[in-house]
């Protein structure tokens, strides 16, 4: 995820600043903000990540956590800040409330000024996460009221998402009925797509069918991690996180080049981000599969 060590230390110690400004590439910053928000709301946080299995994490993954607010994907306006302030005035369901505002460097001056009082007088247990591409473009008064964290410049989508740790573990466990046999279906789906055996629309419908019992975001996160594993094997490494499927990884990995797998991971993670914008699931999957087909046929 590339989060600064100082931020992670404070998070683990329960001493996180009430407002954090994450500066980096937009999709990377948004993923970091979601991970940080989930970690703050997790009912059983671990040393390295939110647990991924408590009631809070389940609500967060489903996009229905009552104590999390996010806005700014289409530009932050004064109305967004007013809606946020109204939400903050309501009683929370748990001990913490977390909000994420994306594009703090592009928000209107009116919105920025209205946000100032909220940052100056935070309610107990309330955390603000702001994201921006450029620190210098954020209003100086906003910068002065939040702790700036520069995200590492690692290529987007290529670093393992910490929240995938629990998802991969559940897929490999025989104790979680919702994931029973899911990896085998993912492998079959991947091989069908890579060998050109179906149209993007057929593949989208197929994915929706095989992942019907798994939370949509978890299913796509697992697919992205499987593609990262194939990329690792294609580069000459061993299957590490999917060791139980080492043979399948070796069989499938040679179909694409490393760069193609990287582009496929990006397409899947972008589809996962679109879920948070309430894009219709099948339409989102169709867009993803069209992009995947483009990657496999245009190189």
By CATH, the topology of the largest domain is Rossmann fold
Q: Tell me what the CATH architecture of the largest domain is.
A: 3-Layer(aba) Sandwich
Strand adjacency order, main sheet: 2-3-4-1-5
Global morphology = elongated
Number of distinct beta strands: 5
Give me the oligomer status: single chain
Order of helices and strands: HEHHEHEHEHEHHHHHHH
| Count of discrete domains | 2
Name the helicity range: 40-55%
Name given to the CATH homologous superfamily of the largest domain: P-loop containing nucleotide triphosphate hydrolases
* Secondary structure category: alpha/beta
Biggest sheet, in brief?
5 strands, parallel
The level-1 CATH class of the largest domain: Alpha Beta
End-to-end gap: 28 Å
Q: What's the gyration radius in Å?
A: 20 Å
Task: Please tally the helical runs, counting DSSP H or I stretches of 4 or more residues.
Answer: 13
Could you write a compact summary of the structure shown?
By secondary structure, the chain is of the alpha/beta class. It has 13 helices and five strands.
